[in-house]
Every structure is written in C-alpha cells, then in structure tokens.
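Postdoc handover notes: sequence design on the structure in folder B. Input tokens:
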C-alpha cells in the first residue's frame, strides 16, 4: 500500500504562517528549484512567503469608474491558477476519509482547463494515477501542461461550453471499471466550494481589513463561473458584509443563467452551459454577461508590448508590467464585469469591488496568435480603439439582477443537469433551498482540518 501524501489544512492554506516552519522553508525552496516536488502542496495559498496577498488595484485611469476594483491574481499558485486549491481540497477530503486510495484508484478529472491542470498536478504529487477529460478545442497549452504534470488527457468533442460530452466520457470510463475509477467532478464536489468559501473568502476579508481602502467594506464580489467555486467566496463575505452583491459572470455567447441560453464561446474556464451543483444561486444578486471576443482582444492589449505602451500613455503605474504576466481571458472578463457592476449599481470611490484573475497569459499564447490571424496585428490605433470600446465603453447592459423570480429560475435550472442526467434526486435539489444546507457544508471545514491533523499525528507516531 502506498503511503498517503497530504498537504496543508484549510486553515494553513488561509494562514501559511501556521505551517511548520521547517516544512514551509522546504516548500519555499522547492517552489523555484523543484516545482514538481510534493512539498509544493504547502505552497497552495493566496499569500507569498512574506505572507503578502497576491493582489492589485486597477488604476482608475484604465477602468473609467470611481469604485475601487481589487483583483486577486492566482498566477503564483503552484500550477499558475487557484484551481489547484480546489483540486487539492477535493482530493484531500476524500483521501483522509479513505474514499480513495493511491494504491488502487484511478482519478478522473472532468474539466475545461485549469481544474484539469490542477488535478493532474495534485494527483501526481499525491501519487495517484489520473486522467483529465477536457474539450478538444481548449488551448494547446492546456493539453501540454496536463501531460507534463503526469496525467493522461482525453479530448472530447466541442469547446468550453460542451460539458455534457465531458460527463458522458467520465461515465463511460466509470462503467468500464467501476471499482477502480473515481470521478472527482468540480461541478458537484463541495471540497471546491469549501476551499473558496473558507480560504478565498477569508483572504478577501483580511485583505480589505489590511488595505483600508474605500469604506473598508466589500460592495461586490464579481466572479465568472465555470464550476462556481470562486463565487463561493461571496457566501463568506456576505456573512460579514451582508450588503455585498454576489455577481456571477458568464459569456454573452452562452448566457445560461442570464437567458436560459446555450451556445459555444472561448472564455476558457467559464460558462459551461449548466448551473453547477455547488453554486448557491439563491445567494446570487446579479448575472452579468460579457463578450468572449472583447475579452480576448483586451487581453492582447494588456499583455502585448504595443498595447502596454499605449496604456502607459494613460497611467505610469508599474502594474502594467505585472498585467503582462498575471492576467488571462477570464481575468479580463471579470474586470469588464466589475466595471459594468460599478456603473450599473452607481458605485462611488467608497465602494470596493473584488474580483479574481484565475490564470496568466502563459495559457493563451496560441489563442493570441489566432486572434492576430483573425483580426490582424495589434497597433496603437487598434489598442486605443479597443480600450475605449471595451473598458471605457462597458455599459450597464446584459445585467440580470437577482430578483426572487430570477433566483428561483436559476435554482430550477439545476434540475435538468443534475436530476435528469446525473442521478441526483429532487429531494436533494430541494434541500439546497435551505440556508442550513450551505451552512452544514461550510462547517465541514473544521471537521476536515481535525481529521487531517489526526492523520498527521498518527503518521508521526508510526514513523520510526
């Protein structure tokens, strides 16, 4: 039997200074020298080795709004995306409860990109055999990284929004070897929710307390939804600041919550054409849809030299060089949606809007090359046009507020995926209407941490 390899507790991911100093020092060294060493599990956190949170405040010269748009960026996580926190949390919860065994089980990670990359990295570090399933039209970089991390990758037909095809392939693998295969579905596993509720949510609350910006409160949590993990941070924030608006972002080309719609799009990592099981939609205050082409075009402005040079005419902020590394397509979509949120809700300099940049440009070089082939090389005039149209011109359209009727509609949409297709019961769906359902899921953070600490203590005493 393989020894179980585990990393940090939820509390240690939130406060890495609580990690054993010797282990933390080893992790700090391995981050640069050996990024595939399992000790890097202890680098899963929103904080650097000096306990500073990875964030920036968008220059107002670029947003055109008075509200403070504060962006947590996930490029510094071990895999270059905070999705690794969700994959680790899911696998860690199942490992300590003996639901999966690295000596026997093969893990299947249904994904549209960053979750699969996180799953490949985490499962290999924790000595599991693993398979990642993702749509064939995802960027070449995603497939390459998954294989480099030690997992197999299976492409399925379609693009970002073709999730049913991923589910179908996962079911096929499970049916072929039901004893050995274990499906770790980000869309339904609450370890994903708990990572963001506890770690991301509390990180944001601590950041606001440290910054002393605006009114020292959170007016909105804006997050594009793929699995709807990140938006769970809003559930935690609302417990401290009840006025916070949880704003969900999805593509205009696939407006599932907004218009009960469908379609294909290319904001990789969001808009998966269904309402996820772990999305607390009854706590959702608005849905904002953004255009996928605009998101890609503005990413090019923020990351290519000619675009950055133009933006340098508007602001001398050193952040322009940071943008070139830490923002991806969904990060741009989140910033656009944050600008729209500020305008729609008439927010002022006292208001703080929080959003997230899930990954960096390293995942999208092939996408940017295709954009150049489709629209021509970026020059100053085009950069200026895109900036004025996409950021300054972001209007309060494609916004759907969380009325009683809309929230009920969003909840009911879960039926078609989860009851009709994925084997959940109507009774399970109805339970999600209760606040206590979500509170019970949140409370499992404490229980999980206690189990993990007990396991560590047991291993320590068994080691000669």
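Designed sequence:
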């Amino acid at each position: 039997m393989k020894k179980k390899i585990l990393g940090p507790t939820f509390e240690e991911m939130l406060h890495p200074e609580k990690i054993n100093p010797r282990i933390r020092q080893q992790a700090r060294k391995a981050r640069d020298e050996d990024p595939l060493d399992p000790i890097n599990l202890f680098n899963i956190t929103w904080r650097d080795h000096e306990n500073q949170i990875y964030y920036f405040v968008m220059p107002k010269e670029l947003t055109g709004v008075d509200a403070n748009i504060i962006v947590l960026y996930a490029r510094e996580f071990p895999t270059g995306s905070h999705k690794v926190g969700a994959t680790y949390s899911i696998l860690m919860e199942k490992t300590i409860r003996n639901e999966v065994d690295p000596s026997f089980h093969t893990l299947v990670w249904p994904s549209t990109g960053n979750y699969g990359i996180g799953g490949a990295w985490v499962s290999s570090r924790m000595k599991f055999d693993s398979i990642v399933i993702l749509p064939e039209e995802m960027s070449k970089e995603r497939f390459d990284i998954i294989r480099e991390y030690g997992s197999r990758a299976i492409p399925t037909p379609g693009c970002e929004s073709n999730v049913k095809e991923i589910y179908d392939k996962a079911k096929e693998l499970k049916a072929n070897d039901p004893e050995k295969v274990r499906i770790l579905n980000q869309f339904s596993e609450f370890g994903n929710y708990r990572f963001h509720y506890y770690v991301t949510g509390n990180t944001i609350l601590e950041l606001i307390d440290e910054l002393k910006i605006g009114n020292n409160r959170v007016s909105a949590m804006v997050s594009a939804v793929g699995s709807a993990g990140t938006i769970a941070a809003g559930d935690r924030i609302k417990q401290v600041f009840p006025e916070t608006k949880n704003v969900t972002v999805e593509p205009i080309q696939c407006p599932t919550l907004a218009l009960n719609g469908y379609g294909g799009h290319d904001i990789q990592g969001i808009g998966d054409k269904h309402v996820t099981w772990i999305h607390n939609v009854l706590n959702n205050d608005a849905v904002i849809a953004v255009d996928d082409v605009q998101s890609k075009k503005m990413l090019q402005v923020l990351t290519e030299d000619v675009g950055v040079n133009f933006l340098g005419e508007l602001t001398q902020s050193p952040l322009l060089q940071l943008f070139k590394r830490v923002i991806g397509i969904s990060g741009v979509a989140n910033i656009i949606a944050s600008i729209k949120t500020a305008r729609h809700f008439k927010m002022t300099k006292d208001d703080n809007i929080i959003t997230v940049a899930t990954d960096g440009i390293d995942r999208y070089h092939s996408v940017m090359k295709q954009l150049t082939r489709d629209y021509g090389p970026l020059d100053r005039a085009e950069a200026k046009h895109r900036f004025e149209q996409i950021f300054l011109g972001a209007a309060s359209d494609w916004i759907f507020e969380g009325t009683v009727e809309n929230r009920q509609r969003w909840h009911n949409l879960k039926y078609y995926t989860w009851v009709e297709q994925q084997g959940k019961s109507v009774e399970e769906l109805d339970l999600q209407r209760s606040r206590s359902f979500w509170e019970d899921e949140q409370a499992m953070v404490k229980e999980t941490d206690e189990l993990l600490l007990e396991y560590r203590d047991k291993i320590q005493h068994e080691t000669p």
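Context for whoever picks this up: Residues 10-43 form one domain. Don't rerun without checking with the PI first.
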